[in-house]
Each structure stands twice: as C-alpha cells, then as structure tokens.
Amino acid sequence: LPNPCYFLDVAASVSDSVPPVATLTFTTADEGGICVQVVDERSFSVSFVAADDVVLRAVKDGVDIPISEEV
Questions:
Q1: What is the C-alpha to C-alpha distance for residues 5 and 1, in angstroms, rounded to an integer?
Q2: Contact present, 29 and 5 (Cβ < 8 Å)
Q3: CA end-to-end span of the chain
C-alpha cells in the first residue's frame, strides 16, 4: 500500500462455470488524514471453497492483476 492511510479489503467469489473461477477482489482506498509517505506492508488472508480444477483470478481496484496459482 502506498502509505498507512490506505486500507485493504479482499473478498472471494466462486462462479458456477466449468471450470469454476475463483475471483479475489482487492479494494484499496485512502482513508484520509495526514500520513507519512512510506511503503506499508500488510498481511491479509482470504478463504473460499471450490473444486480442485478452480481457475484463480485477481482484480485490484477494478483492474485484472497477475496471480500465482502455487498453493
């Protein structure tokens, strides 16, 4: 995240298609206020239930992003 004033939200959804597609949707937004301009690393977790042949997809703020499918 660009600075500590940003928050990160992540949600997962799984489609009914064949093969199923699990979409991880990351949303970031500036909460406002005065912040030091430093890189801010944050941990997160998300879980979902899907078939073994699920295709992973990630979207950050409406833009598709590459995702590693290593589990």
A1: 9
A2: no
A3: 24
Tens of pLDDT, residues 40-69:
677 778 888 888 899 999 999 999 999 876
Dist. CA 36–CA 46, nearest whole Å:
28
pTM for the complete prediction? 0.75
Q: Which residues of 41-68 are buried (b: 16+ CB within 10 A; e: fewer)?
A: eeeeeeeeeeeeebeeebeeeeeeeeee
Q: Yes or no: say if 58 and 65 are a contact pair by the CB < 8 Å rule.
A: yes
Using DSSP's 3-state secondary structure scheme, residue 25 falls into strand
pLDDT tens for residues 24-46?
999 988 877 777 777 767 777 88
